[in-house]
Every structure is written in structure tokens, then in C-alpha cells.
Amino acid sequence: MIKKIGIVANIDKEKSLELTLRLKKWAEKKGVDVYLEEKIAGRLGEAEGLDRKALAGVVDLLVVLGGDGTMLRTARAVREMDVPIVGINLGGFGYLTEVNVNEMDEALEMIMAGRYETEKRMMLDIAISRNDGGQSRERTVLNDVVINRGNLSRIVELETFVDGHYLATFKADGLILSTPTGSTAYSLSAGGPIVFPQQDSIIINPICPHTLTNRPIILPENAQVKIVLWTKEMGATVNMDGQASFILASGDTVVVKKSRYITTLVTSPHRDYMEILRTKLRWGGFPTGSGQ
Fold this sequence. Notes:
This protein is α+β, with helices and mostly antiparallel strands. The chain has helices at about 15-30, 40-45, 50-55, 70-75, 105-110, 185-190, 275-280, and strands at about 5-10, 35, 60-65, 85-90, 100, 120-130, 135-140, 145-150, 155-160, 165-170, 175-180, 200-205, 215-220, 225-230, 235-240, 245-250, 255-265.
């Protein structure tokens, strides 16, 4: 049973304040303690808001009101806590925010009663090392890490190793390293495969490669990928989950591997992953014949 919930909301979304208040009152009527993330608490005039990590430490469930971007920020912030997260979609697409607004009450009723399932989603650790000995950086992502040419006018060369073995030097606009969760994000737009999120693996996908035989590769989950950037110009970038980025210089190294952290997502009680794919990708709507 869920006794304490935390609410995280994208305050830039039009309905976020209204839905937060509605959800808070609804849960409190059921005897559930409600805690608010500090930004939404401030907008509602509440004095005791918590940052996302602290919020995850005191609740049984996080309810995220927003789009996939809000879910990604929340997943990274609470990665050490392993608290289940359910996303209510206030955005336009929403692979991670599986519950629509018009389903919120019914879905949360089932979840509060303990009638729900979760999925453990793999995350990636990224370590960036500077060739000039400057400050190194480490991050964790749920979707992907993208190395691209940024504002450079020419393609970049990305010398790539897997478990210490040389794979290839990709001459391309960039390279995407994705989790299965991220396979339906930028990687899909760049021609990558859709990988079911329960299948832990790392996807390497070159962006507009100069060599047309370069194709996406699916690696086992325990693989470690090392990429060395070679370019004569400054300006190549590494982007993490599309929300944080750093400028790279020639000779800088990016190492990517499976993280010890995971994201626990509450799955929609109304639809399975196949239906989500059909809906989001606008595939055929209904089965025919007896093959259902």
C-alpha cells in the first residue's frame, strides 16, 4: 500500500498547478501523506517543499506531472533512491509519461491500492576526461549520451573502443550511445532500432556517417565503450539526456558503461508497451483476423 506520495510538476505546463492541487486534495482525503517538490510548492505558496532527492527519500511513490523531459530530470535526481515513479503526461508525446491526464484518477486509485507493476530501467554512467588534464566530469543518464559536432562546420572523427578493443573510427556528424529506454528518442530519429526496455543493452548509433556501411550496433549490457574525439577545431559537444552539455576538445575521452543505478517506472494499468508504440508512432490501430 502507498502511504506517502511526492509530487513533482513542470511548473511551465499550463495545467500543472491545477492538477497538483487536485491530486493533493484527492490523496489527502484517502489518508495519504503528500509532499511537494520545492518548485511546485513555491508556486502554490507552500512553505515546506523538498528538492527531488530529499523528496524521494521520504515517500513510497513519486508522481511526475509533465512530459518526458521532466521524467528524465527526476530520474537522474533520484537515481540513488530507487523509488517507483509514475508519469502523468502533460506534454505532447510522452514515452515515459505513460498515464494520460484523463486516466489519472483511475490509474492512481489502482496504484494506491497496490495493484500496479513496475519496470527496472537501465541507466548509463558517463565519464569525460580532458586531454589537457582539466577537470573531469561524471554523469548518469536514463536515455542517451550524444557526441556531436556542435557548431563545427565539418564532420568529427570518433575513435571508438569496446572493452579495450578497437571498433572503428566513425567519421560522422556524431555518435549516439543509448539505453533501451532511449532507443525511442534521438536514436530512433537517426535510424536506430527500437529495443524493448526490459532488454538491458547499449546501442551505438552513428549520426549521418561518412561511410554508409556504418550501422547501429547493439552491445551487451556489461560492455564498456570508450570514445576519443579527434578534430582540429573546438566546438564539438557531448549532450546527456538532451538536457546537459559540455564542450569537448580534440583528444578528450568519453567512457560510457552500464550504471549501478536504475530507474523504477510504474507501468500504465491501461496499456502495454506494444500499444504505446502503436500510439506514439502511429502504426496500424487494430488487429485483423484471428491473430489477436
